[in-house]
Amino acid sequence: MLRENVRGGEAVPKSNNDDEDGDGERRRLLSTIEGIPAAGYYTSQPMLPYLEHLGAHPNYQSLPYGISNMAPTTIPVGISSSHMLTKSYSVSADGSLSYLTALQLGRHELYEMVPFTAVFGMQQKERNITRAYANYAADMDTIEVDTLVFSQTQQHLSMAELDARKIHSSLLLLEELELDAVVITTPLMIALFMAGMAQFLVGYNTSVMNSPSSVVFQGHTTFQWSLAVAVFAVGGPFGAVTAGNIIDSRGRRSGMAVVIYMFLFGGLIQTLAKNMMYIIVARFIIGFASGFSSVLVPVYLGELAPPTLRGTLGTLTQFSLVTGIFVSDLLAFPFANEKSWRILFSVTVVICIIQILCLPFLIESPRWLLGRDRKSRTARHIIKKLRGLRYDHEVEIEVNHFVCASHAQSCDNNDDHTSSGIALVVMLMDRQIRRLLICSLVLQMAQQLSGINAVFYYSTMFFEGVIDSPLLGTTIVGGVNVAATYFALRLMENANRRTLILWSAGGMFISSVSLVLCLLGYFNKLATLFFVLSYVTFFEIGLGPIPWLIVAEMFEAKYVATAMSVSCQLNWACNFVVGIVFPYLQEYLGAFSFVPFAVVLLMTFIFAVTVLPETKGTTPEELRDEIVRSLSTMLVLSNDNTASSSVGNPIDVEWRRAMSDLRRLEEEDMKRGTYNYGFQPIEQNPVAAESDWRARVAGEPST
């Protein structure tokens, strides 16, 4: 392996107690560099150390600034602080050079490898990438420390010392990289609250029509009520399609305002409805807002949150949705009657009013602003508040992360925006990606055609005549749904995705068949409730979250947004089919109404066994290789003061040397008393200056 000169490697004078073997020197070096991860240099060689060595010295003074734990908290006496900072140059997307520490490079990789989408259950992928980078950085750090020790003592570290150093460095870097996952600023909390409330309304309005079916405008026909329920899923695809255009052209914050006012408008019509036609129109508008929200919320939170927090925020919004379903069931106890059913519908209006009051404090997505103008001062101001940064250079580094990640996740080499149409064409042209897209769409169809929304839309109607209290049964189903969502989150961290799909489809199939047997009278009423609960539980551990999570895991980051958009539209279309068809299935098939769902689940099980790939995540070794390939493509220059630095950027190196020489000459003139303070003309020798410049660029000594 190639090795670069190690900075700070001047020999430290031995004390009288250190004799020929150099053990005292070696011990002093090891104690000095303890807790200081070294650094190397990026080059075109993929495995070259990239953590710049920070040197070692027994006497230290305070470091004025730096990254906690990833830069030395002290610097040697007599050595300039500019020589001790991590000075790896990385080329930004706009061609300019910027400094990146090992920690910043790790965050840079996370930005590029984690899609700008907040998806339920994506925490495992984030942790895998973080650990892979930390291990890689620790390996490079260990190599540099060993190089430093060998250069001064002619002895390599022992295996025990190498292992201890690697573990120590890996834990330090891992702690810093995961800090973003526990630090939430006020602007991010407000955005999370607004997005969470939007998803709460999606869940609430999914189930709010379940309980009051017999008390809202009594005398309505089956077709009128099923249309009022199912038209919610008709508005969904329209909202999903419209969302992409609006949030790209008007911004994410404007998109959130559209969601809030559409929910408010639909909620008011539904609350003040005079007949079923008003209810149907209101449900379409609310469905439109729900579809809009299902596209906007993952993108908006994904672009605001740091990479290590996106999975967590996606999980919180999913819990908001299932909590909305549960709350609508709870509120049905006091309000699902002839006098108070309008209060159930007014909850949407109340929540929208709260959101409108918070709207002035909602921030725009910095990624969207930078996509329109990379020099946007508004974007930089938002990033400073969003990340809790103090200094402008920290803001610029974060801007660089956003810009580079947006470029890496684009399909048409356009940093500003990648149209879904272009991305979809690229996906369809690639045979392997096309196969993954088909798998994703099949799972979306299976999710809805499994009949889960028949339970959430019509469970009260289904339980009538089956159990004594249909409303109680519906509420228990909603509560189990919330608990199963949490259980699924814990399960997804350890289980394979395909395995979960198999268990989910198989368990739901058995539950469906058992429900048919219960309705035929082979089991008692309590067994009917039990199998409905098992049906919902098996859904939540597999077919509920996996079709969405699998999109983020199967596709490269640049394809995730498009795959999500197509999947969302198909999901809403199948949702409508179930909503409009199930009342007729129950009317004409009776006890066999769940047989079509059982057939779909059996086909899903066969598909998962024969076609579906495993997507839990790449192995640590594969992630490490991907990180190495990514980092090896970056052009980075050493900050060494030797002539070898000129291979990277002669102009930059020459400028720094010229300024250093100018300072030195001025100091010498001041000491001699000949410094020109501006009272005498400066003598110029253009020919000599030009020749010195050309000689320095060529690496030759100046005359």
Automatic annotation (TrEMBL):
GO cellular component: membrane
Gene3D superfamilies the record matches: MFS general substrate transporter like domains (1.20.1250.20)
Keywords: Membrane, Transmembrane, Transmembrane helix, Transport
One Pfam family recorded for the sequence: Sugar_tr
Domain Major facilitator superfamily (MFS) profile per the UniProt entry, residue ranges: 184-616
Main location: membrane
PROSITE patterns: MFS, SUGAR_TRANSPORT_2
Subcellular locations according to the entry: Membrane
Entry membrane topology: Multi-pass membrane protein
Stretches that traverse the bilayer: 181-202, 222-243, 255-273, 279-301, 313-335, 341-363, 471-489, 501-523, 529-551, 563-585, 591-612
Reactions catalysed: D-galactose(in) = D-galactose(out); D-xylose(out) = D-xylose(in); D-fructose(out) = D-fructose(in); D-glucose(out) = D-glucose(in)
Cleavable signal peptide: none
Ranges where the record places region Disordered: 1-25
Quaternary structure note: Homodimer.
Protein name: Hexose transporter 1
Source species of the chain: Discostella pseudostelligera
